[in-house]
What we know:
This protein is of the alpha+beta class. The protein has 14 helices and 13 strands. The chain has a five-stranded mixed β-sheet with strand order 5-6-1-7-8. Strands 9, 10, 11, 12 and 13 form a five-stranded antiparallel β-sheet that branches. Strands 3-2-4 form a three-stranded mixed β-sheet. Strand 5 and strand 6 form a beta hairpin. The longest helix is centred in the C-terminal third of the chain and has 21 residues.
Amino acid sequence: xxxxxxxxxxxxxxxxxxxxxxxxxxxxxxxxxxxxxxxxxxxxxxxxxxxxxxxxxxxxxxxxxxxxxxxxxxxxxxxxxxxxxxxxxxxxxxxxxxxxxxxxxxxxxxxxxxxxxxxxxxxxxxxxxxxxxxxxxxxxxxxxxxxxxxxxxxxxxxxxxxxxxxxxxxxxxxxxxxxxxxxxxxxxxxxxxxxxxxxxxxxxxxxxxxxxxxxxxxxxxxxxxxxxxxxxxxxxxxxxxxxxxxxxxxxxxxxxxxxxxxxxxxxxxxxxxxxxxxxxxxxxxxxxxxxxxxxxxxxxxxxxxxxxxxxxxxxxxxxxxxxxxxxxxxxxxxxxxxxxxxxxxxxxxxxxxxxxxxxxxxxxxxxxxxxxxxxxxxxxxxxxxx
Length: 386
């Protein structure tokens, strides 16, 4: 069972993105074992070069453990302002070249080039785009061109770094057949272990298991894994410009000039939309603050930030914008905060500047909020003082 309508979907992935940016800034890092992370050995690895990966180093690993595995590694402090800058450069290049693309993360894109084969060929186009990205940004990129997003992503991962591959329409299952089951997105360690105990090692064997059996074994996830194993993925490329903002605002019962209360509202609202941002697995690239005075005059200020979803960064920016906005010393009737320039992101990249303990703390806080409700655990600064 495969799609009968032929599509051409390219998956572009910037190779070891953070490391590549640092190599642009310091050519002496080229070909070396490089770890991107915090400023101390208590931090974790945000990214690492392919040379370091050969020693078993991987993202989210404690830096001190990574250095035990690879003592010669060079540790470079994360600079997310630069990484965000280059991400926007790549986004602009792709936006200028194609009518429909999805920004899946800070360094990953899906491009729908269906129909371009009628003009000058999809493979020729995507190959030209790869060269253009390298020429205009200096960053290497790998891509997989296939009939759907799943095959595009899987194949890209197989040819990195600086690789390219085309999976012809109709050959989805045969391409996947020889790969290990953990190559499929969504098949984690526990599922891999369970299937391995059943003798299922390759995607070919996995694809031959009846879908009913997979559903009985793993529920809805089992059916989804069966579809992936058979090369089926009908998910569309979601246009980047359709990414929505996340916002909240509060009109006070009584107009106020109580700065302690106003700051507590900033904390409460920022914490609320920050939690929402993380639950939606997104990162924000811009913070907007709105103030409406008692005479209904409304003023808005915004600032572009490095992509993040951490409360501390968002709150610091919101407070600075509010301080610049509130200059009239007039009663305020409304305060609002909005996060825009959203991109998918399933980890809090700014947290990699913190310690392992900090990361675990933030993750535990979100877990408690998710289980018992976001209002059950709040920052002291967000308590209502009025």
